[in-house]
From TrEMBL:
InterPro entries: Rossmann-like_a/b/a_fold, Universal_stress_UspA, UspA. Gene3D superfamilies: HUPs. Belongs to the universal stress protein A family. Pfam families: Usp. This is Universal stress protein. Residues 2-132, 150-279 form the UspA domain.
Amino acid sequence: MRVVYATDLSEASHAAVRTQPCLECLQRIGVTEVHLVTVVAADMHYGMPGFDFAKTKKQLLQGQKKVFEDAGFDVETHVVRGTPHRRINGVAEAVHADMIIVGSRGQSPLRDRVIGSTARNIARTSVRPLLLQRITKDGEEYEVARKYLFRDIMFATDFSENANQAFEQVKRIRNATQKVTLLHILPRYELGEDADRARKEAKDKLQSHAETLEQWNIETKIIIREGEPITEILAVEEEVSPTLTVIGSRGKSRLRRLLLGGTSERIVGRAKGNVLLVPPQSR
């Protein structure tokens, strides 16, 4: 399995790379090859003070490369120039990556609730699964919010085709998973006289997912809520504190895919833990 690991070479990204449990989780799901990517902004050009940005970044990248190599990964580094999300997606396509990993952090109490522009733009445009690794700051030190990336998963599904693809991704990372919370939200505005039937159908579908996971000795829990999907998903995440929330991003058109969709984008931006976003027609 091959991943693209996007880094801005900041202290926050160094903290994420140095977290051994996260590296062990990547190994457990079969990752053997890591492509470290950092981007030189397009407006950085020769003639500016310290103009050899590519050389400087490549030198800084060697430290992170060594961490991955010491953990047993095959590593390639890429220093590219341009718009960050376009170049990161471009490298992922070129190397046929199975997943893109991006750190997400806030710079202030307000921005702690909002993902950075690069992560947001990758989420909107990537055709490959995107893992947003949440990074927090404790005093002067950065650390990952949830160290064991795939140990305790919350899978939120609306039973759409894309949600089914997202469940396939849950199955692929099962070797690093001990527990899965299966979640479905019944929007109250859609419930009517058939509410009881809708509840039963949702329970039956979640039970089918549970049976699939339990054959691999993964502990499962089923939760069905009624209400506004975003509010309820975030509330359940707060209650069960998963290390990873998995959600599909639906798109019925190219424009819809670029906009990512209200539910998935707000979950990505406001979840407290890591988020794995599975786009339509991902591998």
